[in-house]
Amino acid sequence: MAVESVAAPPPSELLAFWRAFRENRGAVIGLSIVVFIALVAIFADFIAPHDPIEQFRDFTKRPPAWTEKGDWQFLLGTDALGRDMLSRLIHGARVSLFIGLMVMLVSIVVGVALGLSAAWFGGLYDVAVLRVMDLIMSIPSLVLAILIMAILSPSLTNTIIAVTVVYLPRYVRLVRASALAELSKDYVTAAKVAGVGPFRLMMRTVLPNCMAPLIVQAALGVSDAILEAAGLGFLGLGAQPPTPEWGSMLADSRDLIVSHPHVMAFPGLAILITVVAINLMGDGLRDALDPKLKRS
Amino acid sequence: MKKTMFAAALLAATALSGAASAKSLAYCSEGSPENFSPSMNTTGTSLDAARPVYNKLVQFEPGSTTPKPALAESFTISEDGLTITFKLRAGVKFHSGVNGFTPSRDLTADDVIWSFERQWKADHPYAKVSGGAYDYFNDMGMPDSLDSITKTDDLTVVMKLKAPNAPIIANLAMDFATIHSAEYAKFLMDKGTPEQFDQMPVGTGSFQFVDYQKDAVIRYKAFEGWAGKPKVDDLIYAITPDPTARYAKLKANECQVMIAPNPADLEAMGKDPDVNLMSQAGLNIGYLSMNAQKPPFDKPEVRQAIAMAIDRDAILKEVYQGAGQKAKNPIPPTMWSYDEATVDYEYNPEKAKEILKAAGVAEGLATDIWWMPVQRPYNPNAKRIAEMMQSDLAKVGLTATLVSFEWGEYRKRLQAGEHQLGLLGWTGDNGDPDNFFFLAGCDKDGKPAGQNISKWCDPKFNELMLKARSSTDMAERTKIYQEMQKLHHDGVAWLNIAHSTVFEPTRKSVSGYKISPFGAHEFQNVDVAE
Amino acid sequence: MFRFLLKRLALTLPTFLALMLVTFLMIRLVPGDPIEVRRGERGITPERLEQLRHEMGLDQPVLKQFLDYVWGILNGDFGVSIVSRTPILDEFIKLFPATLELTICAMTFAIALGIPAGVYAATRRGGVADQTLMGLALTGYSMPIFWWGLLLILVMSNTLGLTPVSGRIDLIKYYFQPVTGFMLIDSVLSGQKGAFLDAVRHLILPMIVLGTVPLAVIARMTRSSMLEILGEDYVRTARAKGLSAARVVGVHALRNALIPVVTVIGLQTGTLLAGAVLTETIFSWPGVGKWLIESIGRRDYPALQGGIMLISTMVILVNLAVDLLYGLINPRICHGG
To answer: Is C14's pLDDT higher than 90?
Structure first.
């Protein structure tokens, strides 16, 4: 019965979670911003005033519209090649969120698979998985990501692969630790005795019970992934031109830092706001989901 | 090895601290040299780093394209143009105290012969040291044109050629023809550390090597040699890859001369009361190479279509910021034999599209555009140009991805012909038109020479190039070169983009600095007011 | 304690071995044989290729190559850079002090500001100061540091002219041989007037940029750890006994609250050594991070291989040291672990 109740939480549980989450003002603000950015990313094609890769060569390096030399056609101005800043930022949100979500999804799937199997099989397999994860963690994250990009060659897909590998150990260790704790509990032993198959046991009983920390980790993982991917983009190892990626937009504007600071200011601000919002939301999630972890 | 390095450095340090009121000049350079032997390098960065230390038999007068005697006091060319006799200057001293080496003798013919044979003879003791690739020597066709180099006495070198070679004296003023110390080479070979020869240079130049910290600084001190004492006591290369950072250092008086400013900062520099923004029409060409060995660019009409598809006026305006001139010929207009009559390809995407269609190029064909990761005098921002080209090509139905590598690697791969479309350029380094045309040259078997990254081979073009080399009649050569410009244009050996204006900001306190037409940076006549 | 040390070391060994295996395999996973890519280069004949292959040992059986590689590393031979042809260990030793100096300073900066900020926020829980500080900490934690660096350069250097934008010291005014490789120490040793101050001026911006994220993390960690301790019985008792608030916070709570903070500091130090890649790139700081990035661009695989091996070793060592330190201040872990 315990199994059933976890798999389909009664509405009151969700409601309780929402109440706890709502209490945290920062988290709600974070969530609203994240929802806003997500909507912008989804409907980028309809919202963006221009094509993000269209080069308006008669309008290069325009400052934002409200300044003296601005042009209302380009609300946030244009970059060195005359591409509309606002449209690039909007489409960039799509790229960044896509990277963040993909990294999170792949990490969860692979992390859960590795973590659960390590906990279940134990023995040599467990040791091997743990060693590999230790190894990944012993190589500095950005260096490892850079190395993977060097081997795979820069592209959007490879950015996702590289960042996923870098953050995978967190998920694996988390799931493994939670699973081990669950596996030693009486109800699991009871289920085992009752002849519940290992796969079913894992998916229906153990996994739901380590869901809370996993969700928190996933939320914070999205923001880390966005930052890491932007860092790669800044180093020229991420998404390739003309893809409007925030990190590479920043890198491309380095020579304009003194003469046209706006080209540099906006992409950074976009990254910062997105990451802050996700982190705010993540903190709120953690507090609401897992009172044990509550920090305030 | 460590010990001697340390000792030398210590010596240098004490020598320096002794002269408290020493006058220093700092030059903000853009990168670390690969090594200090000009014969093994082709990048301006590395050549600049070795130049203060060395001399050549003949040298270009600073700021000009005229070779004049240097280590050779005089030279005579025989009637038939096959024998050149160099009379060396007597009493030319080598630097003393670098890397524990004290020269026991002055410059002799042996040093000259040693320097050329290292690049020429495979059995030379130093031929394989430090990798042993002598690009320049080979690309200038030296192995084919040299017959022998011998000495008749300690101060006389006789160079025999297989065929007359009009630009040979200008060629010998180039950096690969730098004269090293054979005695220093032997000293290191005996010590068992020959590779130090290329890391801690000993020469006859106006500045003596003191110390090099990778990615940070190169130090030299004044050397009173055959050319007299330079005006400053210490010369410092502050290695600063980022142009914005270079400008900030210039403003803070942390360096007094800087290479390659950001085009976007030029306006501010012009207004800066402390900065003297020098400029000169560059002896250069920035171009887009189209690999003629890779379909569809093996078809001349496809290359012509690309030439029409790319809006070069926009590139000139946005990337060069007007500091350059749209190029229609491979040689700059300031060079003799420039052909005014060439009719440039006009920007016409519609027509380009038609030609491509007629040539059977499928809509949406994938290709690549390579862009170099560094700012060069002929191309201030290759990535931006590549992005503009990418957008232009998309309009005629080509899908291009951008590719880049670290600068050294980039050049290697272009030379290996890995690209389809690739940005590169050239700054002339001896003032002769041949020095530009050889870039599209091929050897006698029709194989593209190393620097011919377009892999474009036209037998007629090559025949003419050789003919021009062996002639000493200026009028005849001019005619040949104009014919070659036509072949280059019609065959689109590469797409000419621009001849840029070279800008070099210095502090107002600097005097005597001249922009070299060859993109070199020379400091022997430069002074700084305190 | 000794047993703990041994056990911890034993745990490190397999990681270290695996690290060697991965760096070894890496050079073979890269598309294109590192030798093959040089074909077509000037002066590279088929014989020369064979010679290079032989020099790098690539003509040997793979197992033999791996054993040679491990043997080399154990003997301090990390290979030779393709580009500069100098031993990788030498290059690393020359560049590492710059990275280490930057890392230590950034960490000091983060600790010096982070712990007081965290303590202060905890004592003003829920107040304006707490909310402001934690808001700042969250922003710092979320900061894309490459942008932060550019922003600081724009404001501090380009607009205000307060700090230099790159390098470690003014190279014209000051010249001395590196003794320790740490510019702050060397500048003092040199005895040259103003050298130390100038080195500090050069260090400030990179230090702030690199220190921002750990500063935020430490502040957050200190605050929550502090709150937990302040809620515990013995602190309440101390308060009830009438001890002054400052004494309660300063003596009783802080010492215990710092235990988890030390772990965070340790973990962050490892991260920082690597985080230096971006900071070094922005400020042209001649350290190992920048060197690694350039090696990638140059396709200098031996340098990359050796560099990653070395920097990861450093991270492993730092983490080991932190664990030991943790064991010292919190003896419970010895029995538990």
So the answer is: no
Query: In angstroms, what separates the C-alpha of A81 from chain B's closest C-alpha?
Result: 7
Residue range A56-78: mean pLDDT, rounded: 88
- Provide the mean pLDDT of chain C: 81
The ranges assigned to domains in chain A are: 32-293
Same domain, B330 and B408: yes
B262: in domain: no
| CATH number, domain containing residue B249 | 3.40.190.10
Q: Is B83 in the same domain as B41?
A: no
Q: Is the pLDDT of residue C40 over 70?
A: no
pTM for this prediction? 0.84
Contacts of C166 in chain B (CB under 8 A): 240, 242, 245, 248-249
Phi then psi dihedrals of residue B218, to 5 deg: -120, 135
pLDDT at position C241 is 75
Chain C touched by B10 (CB under 8 Å): yes
* Residues in C touching A140 (Cβ below 8 Å): 270-271, 273-275, 277, 311-312, 315
Q: Are residues B34 and B102 in the same domain?
A: no
Amino acid at B335: M
Detail the DSSP E strand segments found in B34-145.
58-60, 67-69, 72-77, 83-88
Q: Does B297 touch chain A (CB under 8 A)?
A: no
| Single-letter amino acid, residue C146 | F
Structure confidence at residue C69 as a pLDDT band (50, 70, 90)? confident
Average pLDDT score over residue span B166-180: 91
Residue where the block lists tokens 């996702």: A160
Q: Rounded CA gap, C162 and B129, in Å?
A: 47
Q: Do C83 and B138 touch (CB under 8 A)?
A: no
Who contacts C59 (Cβ-Cβ below 8 Å, separation ≥6)? C50, C53
B505 vs B247: CA distance, rounded Å: 9
Verify that B337 and B321 share a domain, yes or no: yes
Q: CATH number of the domain that B470 lies in?
A: 3.10.105.10
- pLDDT at residue B394 is higher than 90: yes
What average pLDDT does chain B have? 89
* Residue B196 belongs to some domain of the structure: no
| HSE (side-chain half, CA atoms, 13 Å) at B186 | 9
User: Is B415 in contact with C172 (Cβ distance < 8 A)?
Assistant: no
Q: Which residue carries 């190589």 as its tokens?
A: A139
Q: Please tell me the total count of domains within chain B.
A: 3
Do B2 and B124 sit in the same domain of this protein? no
CATH of the domain spanning A32-293: 1.10.3720.10
Structure ipTM: 0.86
C57: left (phi over 0), alpha (psi -120 to 50) or beta: left
Q: Are residues B8 and B24 in the same domain?
A: yes
Q: Give domain status of residue B495, yes or no.
A: yes
| Partner C contacted by B195 (CB < 8 A) | yes
Domain with B34 in it: 1-53+205-256+509-530
Q: What value does the mean pLDDT take over residues C237-254?
A: 73
pLDDT at B242 over 90: no
Contact flag A296-C142 (C-beta cutoff 8 Å): no
Give the best-scoring range by mean pLDDT among B40-54, B388-402, C84-98: B388-402
Closest by Cβ to C146, choosing from A147, A231, A296: A231
